[in-house]
Structure formats: structure tokens, C-alpha cells
Design goal:
By secondary structure, the chain is α/β, with parallel strands linked by helices. The protein has 10 helices and 15 strands. Bound molecules: adenosine-5'-diphosphate (ADP) and magnesium ion (MG).
Length: about 325
């Protein structure tokens, strides 16, 4: 946080927001402060005063971010200097005191080589991801919260040839990539009059008109999955994104659930997703450990009319072990 005006916040809070290992700072009224990041969610001792002082901090920051936060408008979502996004909500909507959720969007971009060096994947796995990019396969990166999906996606984008244009759409602009031609669109919530909302579905439609070579969805989390699947099935190959799922095998159910938000029934999602997506790369963070690892790569397809993510490769300490769906993936990507 070196550029521009300083955040109107106490030094101890600033120090947390400037810590490179911190992605989120969550202030729960006067009761507690939690941080999330490379070590996972943990409580920290940070004294911000009583509920009234926390409320003053929230309103001051909302104003600094060009928003409004008061009794008539008890929630705000603003961008603050230094790449910090703040969501704040006041009592009585938050009955136990003002709730402040800071998201630090400034983040270091890793190359895939750096992730290999950090133990996130063996070199053979990086080669496989590179092959997915070269084959212009559409794929998703799955994992739990904090598993390193966004970080991996940003690194993967660095492999895209510099002659191609990438359009990224995100709920909150998080992805920073070394790619020289990557443009970003960020969703916007409604203003105090309830106007001007511009969600991921709207962004997906805009992205299609921006001459993308590859469309990237930071995280598929809602009805925009319909636009994404449509785009991928109408010639936008080489796209990728992340999706929240506890295992690769859970991705079909997650896609079905997201599709239902967009009014798509199970069979429609199955047919569209199987046609659109080649693979899922699953990342995992071992409990209590900082290291993130790619666990497996699954091939997406239909089995007796049902959408499945079948194991194509499992990452073992000894290297990559091919699974039953390897041939399926290889054929689809033109490697066999
Ligand atoms: N491969 C990795 N090795 C070490 N730390 C990582 C790795 N990937 C992510 N992190 C750290 O973990 C935190 C969460 O990463 P992020 O990519 O935002 O996860 P997700 O998108 O799955 O929620 C960040 O602090 C990030 O710097
Ligand atoms: Mg993420």
C-alpha cells in the first residue's frame, strides 16, 4: 500500500492489511477481529475500541471509498486506496455491532515455475497444465476456500501466448497475471438508490463483445454459469475459471446447482457442461499447512447421461499416475 492516499484507519489495522500473507480482515463489532490468508482463518488481538468507535471507523472508510453508510443506508461495498475492498454493515441489520469485511486485492502474481518451486505441483503436472492451455481446452480449477484456486488461475494465465487477448470477469478484481494482454471486468453492486448493479451475468455478456481469445471467470458462483457454458459452446475455446468444490468429483453437482440458479435443469447442464468443459484441476490445502497442492486432474464428460468428473491423473509424490479417464482426456485434447 504505497501509492495514493493512506487509508483512514488505525495503524494496527493498516499493518494487518499490508501484511502480504493476509487476504481478509474481518472486524466483528467490538468483539473480535479475524484474519484469513496463507495460514487460514485465525483470530487476532486487535483493539479497535467500542461498538461506537467501530461504527465511526466504518462510516469514515465508506466515505473515503466514495460510498455512504448510515441509518438509511446500513450496508456499503467500496474500493479503498491500496487495493482494499471493504464491505460494511451497521446495526440493526448487524444486530451485534458493525461488521467490516476487508478483502485485500493486491496480491503477488506467481508464475507456474514458482508454484512448482513452492511444491504446489511437480514439473510433470505443470507440463500437463501447459498442454491443456496449448490444446485450448476449457477447464476449471476447483478447491475449497483458500485452497489457492485464484493464485493458480493467475499463474496459468501467464502461459497463454502473448498474441492472445484474455478478458477476465470477476466479482472482485483479484487476478493479477504477468500476461501482457489481459483486461479485467469487475462486478458492481447497486448504488444507494438501488440502481447500477452490474453482476457477473452482465459481465459475461459484455466480455463476449470484447474480442476475447479466452474468457476467464474468476469464480463461477451463480447464474452466470449459463452465459459461460453458452460462450464455451459457441466457439470460445481455451477458457478457464475457478469453482468452489471439495473434490473434483463434486464439481458436476456444483455445476448442476449453479445451473439451477439460472433456470437450467440437470440434463441441460449435463449436456452443456460435458460439451463445454474438458477437465477439472483440483487444488487442496492440507489442514493446518501453508502449502497448496494440485491433487488431481479429472476429465469432464457424460456417463449414461450423467455429468461426471472422472480421474484422469492423480498427483503422487512419485509423479503423475494416470487414471481411468486419461484416454478420454487425451483424445479430447488431441494428444492421442
Ligand atoms: N500455491 C500456493 N502456495 C502457497 N501459498 C498459496 C498458494 N496458493 C495460494 N496461496 C495463498 O493462499 C491464500 C489464498 O489463496 P487464493 O488463491 O485466494 O485461494 P482461493 O481462490 O482458493 O480461495 C493467499 O494468501 C495466497 O497467497
Ligand atoms: Mg479465489
Amino acid at each position: 500500500m504505497t501509492d495514493g492516499p493512506r487509508l483512514a484507519a488505525p495503524p494496527a489495522l493498516l499493518a494487518l492489511l499490508e501484511d502480504p500473507a493476509v487476504t481478509d480482515v474481518l472486524v466483528n463489532g467490538a468483539q473480535s477481529v479475524w484474519v484469513d490468508g496463507s495460514q487460514g482463518l485465525r483470530q487476532v488481538a486487535l483493539e479497535l475500541g467500542d461498538a461506537h468507535q467501530v461504527r465511526l471507523l466504518a462510516t469514515r472508510l465508506a466515505v473515503q471509498g466514495g460510498g455512504r453508510l448510515d441509518d438509511a443506508c446500513p450496508a456499503a461495498d467500496v474500493h479503498l486506496p491500496g487495493g482494499v475492498r471493504l464491505h460494511a454493515v451497521l446495526p440493526p441489520v448487524a444486530p451485534d455491532g458493525p461488521l467490516l469485511s476487508f478483502r485485500v486485492l493486491r496480491r503477488e502474481a506467481f508464475t507456474l515455475g514458482q508454484l512448482v518451486a513452492a511444491g504446489t505441483m511437480p514439473p510433470a503436472c505443470a507440463d500437463l497444465i501447459e498442454a491443456l492451455i496449448s490444446a485450448r481446452a476449457n477447464f476449471l480449477i476447483s478447491g475449497a476456500t483458500g485452497a489457492g484456486k485464484t493464485t493458480l488461475l493467475a499463474a496459468v494465465l501467464g502461459l497463454v501466448p502473448p498474441t492472445e487477448r484474455i478478458v477476465v470477469i470477476e466479482e472482485a478484481a483479484e487476478i493479477s497475471t504477468p500476461h501482457p494482454h489481459c483486461v479485467r471486468l469487475e462486478a458492481r453492486t447497486a448504488n444507494t438508490e438501488g440502481h447500477g448493479a452490474f453482476g457477473l451475468t452482465a459481465l459475461a455478456r459484455q466480455a463476449l463483445r470484447m474480442r476475447p481469445d479466452r474468457i476467464v471467470v474468476g469464480e463461477c458462483r451463480g447464474a452466470e454459469v449459463r452465459e459461460l457454458l453458452t460462450a464455451l459452446n459457441t466457439g470460445h475455446e481455451g477458457s478457464c475459471g475457478t469453482i468452489h468444490a471439495n473434490s473434483a468429483a463434486d464439481v458436476p453437482a456444483r455445476l448442476t446447482a449453479l445451473g439451477s440458479l439460472a433456470g437450467l435443469d440437470r440434463d441441460t447442464v449435463a449436456v452443456q457442461a460435458a460439451a463445454a468443459l474438458a477437465a477439472v484441476v483440483h487444488v487442496r490445502r492440507a489442514t493446518g499447512q501453508a502449502v497448496r497442492q494440485i491433487e488431481s486432474v479429472a476429465a469432464i464428460g457424460l456417463e449414461q447421461g450423467r455429468l461426471v468428473a472422472a480421474p484422469a491423473v492423480t498427483v503422487q509424490p512419485s509423479g503423475l499416475v494416470r487414471g481411468p479417464a486419461w484416454d478420454w482426456l487425451a483424445a479430447r485434447c488431441g494428444w492421442s
